[in-house]
Structures are given as structure tokens and as C-alpha cells.
TrEMBL record:
One of its GO terms (molecular function) is damaged DNA binding. InterPro entries: DNA_glyclase_Znf_dom_DNA_BS, FPG_cat, FPG_N, H2TH_FPG, Ribosomal_uS13-like_H2TH, Znf_DNA_glyclase/AP_lyase, Znf_FPG/IleRS. The lineage of its organism: Bacteria, Bacillati, Actinomycetota, Actinomycetes, Streptosporangiales. This is Fpg/Nei family DNA glycosylase. It comes from the Bacteria. GO terms for biological process: base-excision repair. Residues 237-271 form the FPG-type domain. Keywords: DNA damage, DNA repair, DNA-binding, Glycosidase, Hydrolase, Lyase, Metal-binding, Multifunctional enzyme, Zinc, Zinc-finger.
Length: 286
């Protein structure tokens, strides 16, 4: 799933290539991705892209005051074209969901792999009209996201810190992968209860959040859209690396599986050497 660093990189990529270009047209291949009808998405045709922004994991193209907002969900992606497409878009053939054409022949395709569809496209006059954006918590790369702000967030939160970091209503932009990376950097168990964090632990977690995300954004800066997935995978230290050696201590990275996702962690770095029980089978070993 694209998270804050990848969406930030996509926004930067589009700023360089799409801003100043007029939208020549849009082909909606999968009508189900459209989540709004007023204004119609066809209203974007002929307008000029004047800016590109990111709101959490949402990508926002401003076209003369109308906004094309995209949430890539679990398996969505943006594929850039330097020239016209090689063939017509065919409904129900492959992963293509929406195709945008710019006036110089370039543009991009929105695609979604797999059978679980979550890709969402909105045409709105204000990004705040998108429910997911209106409900977002603070952006962890903003000036407002201080250690004191994080302390207020975790205070009284009787939930596991892993879940809290993934909750977009609490902190915007962090998903399953970067929450694993943040907690590894903070040397913190994913099942630690948020409200039990000490002042020093909050400071350490705040630093881990900001540093991990800024480093990931820096690695992705300037990369072509097609290279971002590979860069993300290379940069991860524990997420998706179950069975491999922790790059910090050399212990074996372990995994806890759920019905629709999994988390990875290092026992030595994060849980005092104790393995966590698979949540499908039993509760945390204490």
C-alpha cells in the first residue's frame, strides 16, 4: 500500500510534469472507482493543472480550482506516460481503472491489481469535501506535529501503539509498513499500550516517526513513479523481512499474522528478546 513517502514522491513527480498542462480528457474504465458525481469528473476536461498536493495518503491535483483527489488504497498505483497510450482502454480488461490525458500527449493511468478493490477517485471543489481527508489527524511532517502533540495523542489511548500509528484519524499517512519501521527505530513493541508510554518513550517515538518518514521521502525524491515501489522495498529494515537478519542487532526478524495483513519486528530490539505470539492463535507473550 502506498503510504506517506510514496504519495509525497508521486506529488512531487506530478508537480514537475503535469503543472501547467491542460487536461485534455479522462477515460473512466472502472466506474466503481468514482466516489462523487457533482461536479462530474468530465468537468476537469480543458482545465489546467495548477498544483499538486498530498493529504495523508491522498493525492490531490488542483485544476483551476477543481480537485481530482485519488486514494490508491491497498493495490492501486499511478503509471505515468510520456506520450499517448499505445492502444485504446478496454473496460474489464486488466487493472486499468482511469486514464488521464494531458494536452501534450502525456498523462497517467490509475491501475489496481487484485480482486479487493479500494481505489477511490473524487472530483470536488474543496479537498475537505472528501470524507477521508476531512477526518485526517495531523500530518507527521508538519510543524504542528511536535513531541508535545504526540504526548496528547497517546495520553489516555488504551490501544496498542501499532494500531494507533496506523489510524489515519490520529496521525495521517502512516500505514502498515512504516508503522513497523517506526517502532523498530523507536525500539518499541508493536503491542505496547499507547497510554503507558513514558515521557522519554514519547520523545523517542516522535523522533523515530519524523526521522523514518523524512528519510523515506528523501530516498524517493526525484524518482520516477515506476521506481518508487522498488525503492520502498529496499529501504525497509524489518517490514516484509520475516526470517531475515535484523540490520541493527542480527537477530531474526519475526512476524505476527492477521487475516488480512502481517507485522514484522525484531525481538532483541523491540521486545526484550521475547517473541510475540501469533495473534491468530494466542495473545501477546508477557
Amino acid at each position: 500500500m502506498p503510504e506517506l513517502p510514496e504519495v509525497e514522491a508521486l506529488a512531487g513527480f506530478l508537480r514537475e510534469r503535469a503543472v501547467g498542462r491542460a487536461i485534455a480528457g479522462l477515460d473512466v474504465i472502472a466506474v466503481s472507482v468514482l466516489k462523487t458525481y457533482d461536479p462530474p469528473i468530465t468537468a476537469l476536461g480543458g482545465l489546467t493543472v495548477t498544483g499538486v498536493a498530498r493529504h495523508g495518503k491522498f493525492l490531490d491535483l488542483d485544476a483551476d480550482g477543481l480537485h481530482l483527489v485519488v486514494h490508491l488504497a491497498r493495490a492501486g498505483w499511478l503509471r505515468w506516460r510520456d506520450g499517448p497510450p499505445t492502444g485504446p482502454a478496454r473496460p474489464r480488461k486488466g487493472p486499468l481503472a482511469l486514464r488521464l490525458h494531458l494536452d501534450d500527449g502525456s498523462g497517467f493511468d490509475l491501475t489496481e491489481a487484485g480482486t479487493r478493490k479500494g481505489l477511490a477517485v473524487y472530483a470536488v471543489r474543496d479537498p475537505a469535501e472528501v470524507p477521508g481527508i476531512a477526518a485526517l489527524g495531523p500530518d507527521p511532517l508538519s510543524e504542528e506535529f511536535t513531541a508535545a502533540a504526540l504526548a496528547e495523542i497517546v495520553a489516555g489511548a488504551r490501544t496498542q501503539i501499532k494500531g494507533l500509528l496506523r489510524d489515519q484519524r490520529v496521525i495521517a499517512g502512516i500505514g502498515n509498513a512504516y508503522s513497523d519501521e517506526v517502532l523498530h527505530a523507536a525500539r518499541m513493541s508493536p503491542f505496547k499500550i499507547a497510554a503507558t508510554l513514558t515521557g522519554d518513550e514519547v520523545e523517542g517515538l516522535h523522533q523515530a516517526i519524523v526521522t523514518t518518514l523524512r528519510d523515506a521521502v528523501g530516498r524517493s525524491h526525484g524518482l520516477a513513479a515506476g521506481d518508487l515501489k522498488a525503492e520502498k522495498k529496499i529501504g525497509l529494515r524489518v517490514h516484509g523481512r520475516a526470517g531475515q537478519k535484523c540490520p541493527v542487532c542480527g537477530d531474526t526478524v519475526r512476524e505476527v499474522s492477521y487475516a488480512d495483513r502481517a507485522l514484522q519486528y525484531c525481538p532483541t530490539c523491540q521486545t526484550g528478546g521475547k517473541p510475540l505470539a501469533d495473534r491468530r492463535m494466542s495473545r501477546l507473550l508477557k
